[in-house]
Amino acid sequence: MTDEIVDLTNCDREPIHIPSLIQPHGILLVLQDPTLEILQVSSNTQKVIGRQPEELLGKSLSDLLNAKQINLIQQCLAEDFESINPLNLSIKHLNKSIYFDGIIHSLDNIIILELEPRKAKDSTGFFNFYQQVRGIITRIQKAPTMLEMCQIVVTEVRRITGFDRVMVYRFDREGAGRVIAEDTNQETPYLDLHYPPSDIPKQARQLYTLNWLRLIPDASYQPVTLIPANNPLTNQPLDLSLSVLRSVSGIHLEYLQNMGVTASMSISLMHEQKLWGLIACHHSSPKYISYNIRTMCEFIGQVMSVELANKEASEDIDYKRQLKSLQTQFVEGLSQAECFLDGMVQLKSQLLNLTSATGAVICSGDQYIEAGKTPSEDEVHALLDWIKPQLHHNLFETRSLTKDYPAGESFKAIASGVLALEISRVHHNYILWFRPEIIQTVNWGGNPNKPVEVLSEGNFRISPRKSFELWQETVQGYALPWKPCEVEAVAELRSLVVGVVLRQADKLAAMNFELQRSNEELDSFAYVASHDLKEPLRGIHNYANFLMEDYADVLDNDGVAKLQTLVRLTQRMEDLINSLLHFSRLGRAELIRQPVNLNELVQQVISTLSIARPQSEVEFRIPQPLKSIQCDRAQINELFTNLISNAIKYNDKPNKWVEIGFIEENGQRKVAPTSMTFYVRDNGIGIPEEHLDKIFQIFRRLHGRDDFGGGTGVGLTIARKIVERHGGKIWVESNQTQGSTFYFTLSVEPNT
């Protein structure tokens, strides 16, 4: 099996941490812990210390170092390596001592010792180190802005090291980089140039988080092999992630040579445990930087990394204060609102200002509210369905929606940038913010596209870029990036909204509990009162009849008329009590849900009413067959009976008609409806507008007691009770003298 050829098509997979090669400006020894037996050695030991690699393998480190140095190394093994490196070590060769900076670390019970030659007096004490960096650190800390701090750093690092060019290179969220500060003696500036993510692939960025400094004294070096190539204990290549001598990827060396760089050094800049950027140093000729100077530069990078958080906090300080003020307005507005949605509607402008968005959408259940410029409702619903699996910690953000969501191409002019917040997946509460496409010109350090190179064999190879001249590109489909403070404000908004919703839910639950208790007490009172009233009422009715029968010859016509009135009143009173009793039983009876064919049920109601009212000629219209739903058959039968009989009763037209139907769900959403809307429409007398909100009140009649066949005025109250018990609502639309339409919804879910 042949080795895979590494080029830019697969450089993200190159195992750069296990090259089994080192750079030639030092030697590497692999030791067994705790015996310090030499297991592996770099093949350049003869050149550096005059000892053949094979001569050292299997020997103890004491063959190279004296007892004092061995004791120092053994003591160091129990300490933090970063605090003890470098060790001042020396090896005798040809009656003279060769001095080294010893860099030691351990990995998986293996000790790695790297030796870099140095001059005997090339050692920087703490006081000298402190004197050199004290002023730099003070200037870094006092820099008023991020960019000014970066400029101080590049200037000072170049002064300390003598590199031709020193830059601060910042990564964006996609891994691309931009030079944001530079100090150089070269003619061509790199300041503000962009570089694609492939210039520093993922695994290289990962190594920068483990090893904060990387030096390449001469990019044209010949790599030095390890002997043996694999570690004898594991029979695997040695992990050189923490090695300072680790050989660099050939692709990277070619990249440097194409750029005209012979020596380079990079220092990691970390922020919130992530690689924020690099201090990148370039030189046009070979250049070695001693370990002590490198340590000084690394320390500067570490201080700068700490200061990144402080400088970021001070950036956009006025804007951040504005966001805090907006959050206060949300607290006040939502706290006073009856529900989350009402509060958000009142805060539309603040919602846009919170993220400097040009459009926003609030989705809550089936409700949809928009502010500013947004895609269509169908486009937003489709987008939201795509976003939901992409949410991370209830958030989703992108500045280039079309990169991952091709359907966004049609509305990229208003929504290339999307920031989405999930408040509640269960209740389908979401907020989306939109930003428009900003067409801009980006300055690249050379053409960022991967060039194709034709090899002599006729094969193709994608190679590193050979030109780093200014190359401009017009970029489309991108919006301005969402600032971290804006994303943070949105995350805090969710906590605020959830808190308000929970408080409102607690309040609503308490009110519902109290209302349920009151209703239960009212039902119990009505039930008991109905029974208790019927007995004395029946006595009054009977005694009135007895008086008319037994004393008819004694009473005059006026007395008989008064007794007859009393009988009629007791009869009406009994009708009212029976209606009240029936109403109270509706609230106490358990719903027996079952599949009911409403088309058959309505036909039965029509047949029954036609038999009961043979003198009424009515045309019944059913535009389309009614569907089957889960409901209580007896109660829904009574509901349709009440509404249809009212439609017949309150109609003075010569040609009466009643229409029974349902409203089809329109729209493109592929979501099964949770309820259906039915209606009963007539061409009757209609209802005055001022009475529309009163007709569902119990015992409320809009006409005389005996007009239109009389009645107790409880039919519509019972209809409302039945609908509400089925999880729906009922309302009426009417034009006086032209007719009325009663609408009601019924839940289609069996357990609602």
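[next item in queue]
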Amino acid sequence: MNNNSKRNYYLDDIPLEEAIEKYFNALKKYFSKTPDELIEVTKANNRITSKPVFAKVSSPNFNLAAMDGISIDHKNTVGATETSPKTIKIKDFDWIDTGDPINDNHDAVIMIEDISKISNNEIKIFSSVSSMYNVREIGEDLIQSEMIIPENTKINHFDIGVCLAGGIKEIKVKKNINSKFIPTGNELINLGEQSTKGNLIEFNSYVINGLLNNIGVNTETSPIIKDNKELIKNEISNSIKKYDLVIVSAGSSAGSEDYTKEIISELGEVIVHGVSIKPGHPVILGKINDKPVIGLPGYPISAILINELIIKPLIEKKINHKIHNNNQIKAKLTRKLNSSIGEDEFVRASVGKINSEYIAVPLPGGAGVISSIQKANCLIKIPKNIEGFQKNEQINVLPLVDINDIDNTIICSGSHDLVLDLLKSFLLKKGLGYKMAINPIGSLGGLLAIDQNLCHFSGTHIFDPQTNQYNLPFINKFVKNNKVKTINLVDRIQGIIIPKTNPKNIKGIEDLNNPELVFVNRQKGSGTRILFDHLLEKSNINSQKINGYDNEKNSHLAVSYTIHSKNADLGLGIMSSAVAYDLDFIPLKEESFDLVIPETVLNEEYIQIILEIIRSSEFKKNIESIGGYNTNKTGEIIL
């Protein structure tokens, strides 16, 4: 039978809000009851109360001394003054320490500093005191039967301390949701298993379960199940009996081996199949025995987005408690974002704060690029009725992390270099809360970002053949709106990256006249691309005749990896990236890689820390160990 005859088709392609409303309406019975349980109060951190909690005892449950000194009946102090002290006999006072219970016949404490000891049995006092002077009264902290924690409150360690003070041993909390994650697919293997071409390591379960654990969900994962309908059906059928939520990974699309929709339909009901969002479009929202069963797309970013947009709100509704932040902030966009009309698109972004304004750097990558979500701290939503946003437009962004993490994110735009990755690591090593978001948009792009206040600093290495200088002519040309300081990060060697042992006997730029050689290029605006075009012009080589000239990569490592993967024969890049993949290298030119820093942020703590790192001997030693770098000028102010 032709596979096309077995293909699934979407039941729906509806807006996200409508899909959630439709799904939640179908799960009314599921949401109607939230079971609770009685647990030890000392194990209740991050749990949510199902009933109000009331103190069983007062705290303190007796009058006690707030100071070291003597306890006394305040009436016995009447008449005492500095000029006419009063002598008190032992029968009328007790020596007492802070925290000691007070004699029932006494109602005040006089500090040791305010008495004069005549003997152990006799003292002088120099002022009268009032009732309950320096006394912690019964119930000062808690009064028996006082409410300690209201219902539907997330418990923290302070709450636990107050509960213990109030004599509470056990507490009623909402039961945690139990979730089962079922990974499916012929291509999936576990880490450590022997891999063949076409295999992918299964990691979606670790990511999704980890996100759910963070909000109090108990999670389990089944073994990987191959694309076999009966095996998948059996696992779903067994899981729904035991768990509150079942998540099936992959098999949600419209392929001939995508069985999730069919299985849910047979065991229960599919409420929604297909939501107009990107990524995450082919999600399945179903129920079996009135419990939610969700079919996630296999692409990791799609799965993560569905978790944020649908699964978390479902859990919130089930436990009737807000568990994640969806407060948006305004940010200025660093580049134009295009989107197709008809679907809400969610774009990952790094956001930092520059001169009291949030700046959003959209990250590249499709639904399968999990590294982009690792680098992101916010999401940008492009509504389905618009074609995108313009550069410098003020837009709403949805934080994925605490706002303090965003405030401490330092955006480094411009050219990429391995030394910037090393700098990022050294900054994190300081443990001061700062981290770098590296935005590889090329040297020219970085200078324009500096000019428009779209980054904290940039990396640049642009050769000017007219002046035989690096960087300064271009800084003067493109940075008009900011005064800047230029600081040398490193000098490095540019050259031709080729496979180990140079199997095609490549000798230099002139070999690019050979149409059989496949080249891999850097993106327009990068310093390497500008240098390469200059070398082509100098050698009278027509770029349009170079096989692969339009195959652009955003980093030196990407160029080297393309050659390492045998998808190209050569490329222009830095020596350190060739060393990283054990490739050969033909040196062409030493160049200056400089940092351009606006004077408006130069004295900020994070910049001073970065400069301190750059100038440290430890940092320079680490650079030199990579190979292909010269640190003689590292940290020097060029201009």
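[queue empty]
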